[in-house]
């Protein structure tokens, strides 16, 4: 296994350079360190006015909807493991935040949005590109609500087999057939095992 | 029959009896009723029996047993010598009973010391006539011989060593003698006795044979049998074998090639043994021997670090490399060390060229490990690596490359930091030469690099704080520049979002403060002061600065300066009429400093002078003078007093309290409004006092006035919370357990009476506060039991819902009622509540009508919420049905959340208990994880009219709980639900809240994976 890796020594992105929602949140919204000084346990008179008051105050903002955005899609797929290295697709730069695009419904009557993910293989000759694409596709189909159409492609100019792979990933029948293949399913499951 | 005949009869059947017979013969010899010559003669027919070898062996065993039982001084020197010659003479022609012979000789030696010739004779006879040892099949026989040789080597070192010098064939035969031994019990002794020739004899001509004779056993793969009575472990054998391998420098030509050969093994355990053995060799062999193999060792060991297979192997290899460096540095001439380091430095420099890669990271680890081994090594590494490193740095524009190089540099500096801790006064002049270059680079990175280069800037930050930590590397001016840069990042890096490294910068600043406190005091603290106005217009930015400033107090060296500046700033702000939010933030910063920081201590207790210097002025400014300070400010002042005062002794507390009593007592007795207003301060102030400081009379007064307030109905929520907590505190800490009921009656808050005044909500609150104090105290058992029953009975009335909710407060953690606040904390109060109330509640739930049932369910979940799981575990069959009904209470979110937490614990610890309820549990969890349940399912149990929606926390929790089931429950139970769950979770994937969606994905993945497992079953 060691010797026949397509790319034995890939570039690894430092974890602190990966995009994350926590780090990009504005400072003002984060709880300050002083807030932790006084723990918020229910105290004797808390349920005084009404029973509901005792539950978490965060629920008051229940009405605000947090839409599914690119960062969320990134978080879903960046933790998938590479089939060759014990590293995540995010740290290998196979999936990048900039290469994820959420397209709104094409017509006002349609509810279907599209998530487009472009994959950058670690080398242009990486033979496992199809498997990686399949893993990303399976993950998103399972994790996104049905109103999203999942479109996984190879980023232009990064793989010699891009057209072939795109055709395979775009074809529902072929994807379904691939997921009937037990050994392929096992590979994909191992890749997805590291997802939260 | 003679003794020998009796002995022979018993020998095979009953060893103990045989030994007794031999002992009897021995006592005959001792009291002279038997002569030695007669005893030997009586043996004759058996000892010379030509047909039966075992008979001969048993006869010798008889001799051995007799000799063992014999006390000293019975046999004359001549007799002993005769016996010895006789036994050895037998060996030449007959080796039957060789083990017994060895035992007999050991016994003879105990009876009287041998001379050199005898010792040599014994040794030679065995080596010549019983070689090799493995011809004897019985482990016990071999064991006896090994013990004899071990004894000879231990007690007759010189005579035996002479054998090696005088008789050319002896040593070779001696080595051959042990060949083929396999029993671990024997090997333990052999490995140990062989160390004598290995370390003390001149073995130059036999070194290889001697080495091979032990190395044949490497690696040890012994697995002790279960219930091994001897208790020998593989590790014991490994340790002794390793000591043999490392015993003599002459082994090096055989040891290193063979060890390195075994380092290529595919077994990780073998590699581990090899690395530890190499370390032992490096420690034990002479430095000039190590010199011959240093480069060979480097060439092999480096692969374990460059291509890490297992982290511990890499660490052991680094340790070995470091030890070689340390060993070679012992030599007076520098040549060997240079010869060792030259290829290392060359290779590491090559790896640096393509930094950052796995290899360049490994190079950093190697260089750090080596540099730690000694100043001489560190010096050469700095001279060999750093010029190249900085040339590469300046030649490259790539930020990632520069980061990789800086990280290696920081690792080398880290080695210097450790070195100067181990050997204070380590010469650092070589590193100084590069300090400016390095500091410039890192300061540039922090100040000028794009904010999005997070890892680059973080590496520079670590680098700077390491540089400051290496004593004497930076000049004072350079330290100030470093401090200024980091301070600047903390104060002015206001980008927010991705690339905000202020949190790390604050930490770096605190660690710099440890190593360079003066620079931080001179530069950082004034810079912070400039950024903190006396009266700000805009609050937000200031809070961030204040938070950072307060965190500096975690370093003891600057703690005093930080709190002093905060105090002055607070005074100025108050004087300038700054907004309340700013005052509060300053107070919080001070509280943070005292709570999380490192104030000076004396005998482990915070210095009492802080009270006079900091707490007292705050009390004067905020509490005493009628400035109308807000409740939240008073609370923080109270907390600051609490944290300083509570650990002080009775004397100090009494002095403080005595001074404060006067102005406080006006409040306590009077019914003034300032009384209520000062509540938050009082709560924390009284919490800090030791019970003996306050007099009983004052307590009753205080209880009365607090009770009066609590029972009034014009209090705000905040006020009543404070009053109730104060009541709990007083009941728990100050009221004497003997006079509880009397004191309560005097204060008009006797619980049974309060419960009867059912109409007033305040009364029931006070009742719970009193019971909480008593319950946690645990000293008035029967009274508490009675009161708990009253509270339970209160659930039956129609307005019992208030009481039901209050049950959650009984056991809730409380930062007032703690041991640190000198409260009485019983270890068993949670068990008490559980044991007394839960059986009643579960029984009541089974029979009650819907309205009352809700009360019981709410009370039950309040009690279970804070129980440790171990207490619940015994009552699961009764609890689960009740908890399932709790999930139907649509209106009540916190109740549901706590029930879900309990289900989560059950699923983790006792999943089988859920098996029979799987269908109802899954159905309810699925209802709980959607935002609004389908219309028409609202249960009548809830009297509330709020819209039945599940809060995000409940949705997330129920998904989390649901996700556990496929993993924890048996497959045949969950598989039937898979389709339904997976389908319904599709909706949760589109939940409005991100956290819920995340949990939904996890949950759905867990259920989806079920199919594959199930599929394999088919």
From TrEMBL, chain B:
One of its GO terms (cellular component) is nucleus. It is found in: Nucleus. Its main location: nucleus. Transmembrane segments: none annotated. Residues 40-307 form the MMS19 N-terminal domain. Residues 545-966 form the MMS19 C-terminal domain. It comes from the Eukaryota. One of its GO terms (biological process) is DNA repair. Pfam families: MMS19_C, MMS19_N. Signal peptide: none annotated. Keywords: DNA damage, DNA repair, Nucleus, Repeat. Belongs to the MET18/MMS19 family. Key component of the cytosolic iron-sulfur protein assembly (CIA) complex, a multiprotein complex that mediates the incorporation of iron-sulfur cluster into apoproteins specifically involved in DNA metabolism and genomic integrity. In the CIA complex, MMS19 acts as an adapter between early-acting CIA components and a subset of cellular target iron-sulfur proteins. This is MMS19 nucleotide excision repair protein. It comes from Meristemomyces frigidus.
